[in-house]
Amino acid sequence: MRSRTGIYALLDILGVILIFSIFLLLRAEPFVTALNRYLYSFLLFLGIWLLVSIFSKKYNHATATRMSSVIGNIILANIIVLGIATTLMYLVRVDYYSRTIVFGTILTATVLELIWAILDFLVRTAVTEPFEAAGKKISRRRTLLKNGLLAKRTQRRTKSFKTREDAILVEINQEAFDYIFSFARIDSPETLVISSTNRFNIETQLKDHFEAIVNLRRINDIRYVNKFFETANARLPVGGLFIDFVETKNLRKKRILRKFPPGINYIAYFFDYIIKRVFPKFIITKKLYFFLTRGQNRVFTKAETFGRLYSCGFEILDEKFIAGHLFFVARKVRKPHFPENPTYGPFVKLERIGYEGKKIRVYKLRTMHPYAEYLQEYIYNMQGLDEGGKFRSDFRISTLGRILRTFWLDEFPMLLNWVKGDLKLVGVRPLSEQYFKLYSRELQEKRIKYKPGLIPPFYADNPKTLDEIMESEIRYMEAYKKSPFLTDFRYFFRAGFNILFKRYRSR
Question: Which of 74, 235, 238, 448 is the 20 to 30 A CA-CA neighbour of 94?
C-alpha cells in the first residue's frame, strides 16, 4: 500500500506543476519570462504543499474506510497550504506575485484531488455487502473478525469444522447453500468445493476430474475469468457441473443507489459507471482501470457472464437470484472455443455466413454486451423469436445499443465490408451460424449462392415471422436471378421509402 501512496503523491505533485504552468500560460507575458520570475517561489510553495500533504495524511486515502475522512484530509491540508501561502504573501509583500496564480492553483488542484480521491474511494469500497436476510449470522461473524476479534479465526485455523456444511456456511447463506447442493452432492469426493479467485486452486488438485466444481467466491473478483472457466472445464467430464455466482450490472446499480443518500447515490453511480464500464473498453484507460482496481470488483452483465461461460464450453442449466447475486449452474458440453480475437471494445467484428458459405467478419458498432454473440442458441431456446424474426426480450442489447439501432448508427461500419467486397448494397442479410441453422436446408443451400447485402429485402417487405422472412428472401432471390440490376434498384428504393417515411428500424 506504501507504493500506492507514493504514486498518489507523485501524481499530485505533477498535477500541481501542470496546473501552475497552465496559469502561467494564461498571463500576457511570455511563458519563459514568467517562469523565471516565479520559479523559486513556486519551488518553495511546492515544498510546503508536499510537507503539509504528508503530515496531514492526505495521500493515505488508499486505506481510508470512510469518504468523510478522504474529503476532510484533502480540504484540511489545502486550507493549511492556503493559509501559509496567504501569510507569506502578506509578510513578504512581493508586488509582482499574482494572487490569481496562487489561489487558482490551490483551488483547481483541490477540486481535481477531490474528484480523484472520491473516484478511487468508490472503486475500492463499492464491494458487495454481506449476504442479507438468511445470511445475518454470517455477516455477524465477518464483522467480529473485521473488528479484530481473532479468537474465532485462530480456532478455525487449528481446529477443523465439524462438518463440511459448517465450513461452507461461513462463506454463503443457507438459501444459497440449499440451492447449490440441490445440484451437487456435498458428501461426495467427486464434488470439489473451493472459495477462490485463482485457478491455481483447481489446477493443483490431485484428482484429474470431478463431477462438480463449486466456487464460493463471486466471479467479479476473478482477474482472469476466462482462464478460470477454462481450468474448471478441463477438470470436468462432459456433463459435469460448474457452479458459481455473480453480482450483475443491474444488481450492482441497485446496491449503489441504496448504499448512498438520495442525490449522492446517482453521482456515485455515474462515476462508478465511467470507471467500471467505460474505462475497460479502451486501450489507454484499460491500463488505468486495472491499476486502480487490480482486477477486483469488476462489473459483469448477465449477458457477458453467460457469454463467457458458453465460449468456455459450458451451457446454462439453471439460475437463481439470491441475496443480491445471480447464482448459476453451468454444464460442460464441449471444450472451450479459445477465440483469437474476442470482441470487447466499441467496435466489433462478427462472424457471418457469406457467399458460397465462406465465413466473413462484418464490422459493426457494439450494441450488445461483450461475449453476447455466444448466447444466440441460449436466447432462442429460452425465449424464441419475436415479431420481425428478432429474439424476444433480448437482454443482450445494451441501453446505448438500442439507441444506436434506432438511428442505424450500428450499421455504418459495415460500409467497410461493402468496400472490401464482402457485401453488396442490396442482398440477403449476412447471418450468424446459429441463425442460419434456423432456415430450411433448401433455403440454406440457395442462400449461399448469393452475396449478402447491406440492405436486406426485410426492409422492403416488412415480414413479421421467421417463415415470412424466409419467403421474403426467396422472392428476392428469384427476382434477382431473372434481373439482378432492376431487382436491386427496386428493392433499394422500396427499403429507403419504408425506412424514411414508415420508420422501419433495426431492432
Answer: 74
